[in-house]
Amino acid sequence: MTINQIVRNTVERLKAEGKVWTPDAYSETFCAEAKKAGFAVEDCSGIDRYISLMDKKTLEEVKQYRVRTTAELIRFLISKLSRMNPSEASVLVELLSNLAKKMAESIDVLHNPDASALAKKTIAILEEQGGSTQLELLKQAWINFLSIYDDSFLMKLSVFGSVDTANLRSTIESLSLQGGLSGEAGSAKTVQLLIASLVPSIAPTMDSATIALTQKLQDNPSYIDTDSCEREIKTAIAMRIALDKNSVEEMVRALDSLLGKLSAQLIELIERSENSSSEIREVKRDLEALDNQKPTDFKTAHKRLYTIASTLEEKVEVLSKDLKVHNEKVSQMGKKIATLEADLAQATQASREDFLTKLFNKRAIEEHLNLKEAEYERHAHPFCVAMLDLDHFKSVNDTYGHEAGDAVLIAFSKILKLEARTSDTVGRFGGEEFLAILGDTDLNGAKVFCEKVRAHVEQAHFMYQGQRIAVSVSIGVAQRSDFPSLKALVNGADERLYDAKHKGRNRVEPA
Fold first, then answer.
1. 77-91, 138-152, 289-303, 329-343: range with lowest mean pLDDT
2. Quick one: pLDDT at residue 316?
3. Could you list the residue range(s) of the whole structural domain that residue 271 is in?
4. What pLDDT score was predicted for residue 181?
5. What Cα–Cα distance (Å) separates residue 391 from each residue in 359, 395, 405?
6. Which residues are catalytic?
7. Do 394 and 265 have their domain in common?
8. Roughly what angle, to the nearest 10 degrees, separates helices 402-419 and 393-400?
9. Distances from the Cα of 297 to the Cαs of 61, 92, 141, in angstroms?
10. How many domains would you assign to the chain?
11. Tell me, what CATH number does 374's domain have?
């Protein structure tokens, strides 16, 4: 095979994979094809051919900052030649790493092709090696996206039809209320799942018609089998989507208003600058052009914010004098941004998934408890609650560090998922404390589950940076029929956890 053939293969592969034709993408694909063909190309040897020429001190710095590619090596050498603070280079590398991680997490949970396209475009921007401010803005945008995004409700509809996580419209259109669960008990369970799926993901409340429908279904679960119910459900689903869409549009309008004011301030500063050049005037025209189209989604609003932020970074030296004069106005805008961030933080708090363990968070666990309580009151379905707490967890953080503690929590959550049945619900209740809702079981069955978890933790190898960390768990378990209320049940499990701690830990109470 010739070099020309390798070049043709490289071009065909780039087209087939739909990659952006940047120099880095072409180089990576070319080297892969050359290696596949058995060609040794010097340019594909990475940074190895350069680091062998470095002195010992510089080589140690390259290893310390985890330089892996030629582009990273060039940036490292430039920063070293310009006497750049090494901590700044470390911060930039850390920002890139965190941003890439958040993008990967986002893409992993998406079923929206537009969001996937946004991710690809963001990767292209990264390959252009933007500044730290641009990278921080991009990272925050992805963090916000993850905070408000939750599609776990889709799987609750699997009993009614095929769930296509890549296309929400296809999933809704394929729903069918024929088949699935049968009988009064099946209808009651289906109703509970359906009601949960009708709760808006973003909008704060349901509309009155949907509330009336949910109440009708709770009072008479068999109503779900009627034709009129099917029509009402389709209307409710459409209304749920509309409510979420309206909430998103309100957030976009608030962001657009802030962007418009920021753009106006920049234009005013450029006009008043004593050093306004033709290049700055061109930036002014670009900013004015942004007002011709109002953003209707987060993608467009993000693009506008990114453009304005880039302008600020590139022209900060020219505009610094005028920015100081307008410090008070910038401060007011900062307060508005803080208000918007607080709103987004509130939306983040509403997320139903624990950010570290990926189990249900406390809010979601309480929702499941209420559903179990409703089943118990209506049909006397038995269930138990287990409170689990890792023993001496503070000493793990103190001895090995908080990163080791996080690793232990993640590993323990995997054990809980592995031991839990499909009818069980597990989640993180706070800190190192977890709660398990054990459905359709009595106290003896619950104790069997708890003992399996305890033994699994005792025998597991919790490793961090080559060191084994000894971990055990204490568990308190209680069954619903022994307590007058749901609150008393949870308190009872907590008290029995307290007994387990005082009886020597690494045990299940009641024994």
1. 289-303
2. 56
3. 253-333
4. 45
5. 20, 9, 12
6. 432
7. no
8. 140
9. 44, 29, 13
10. 3
11. 3.30.70.270
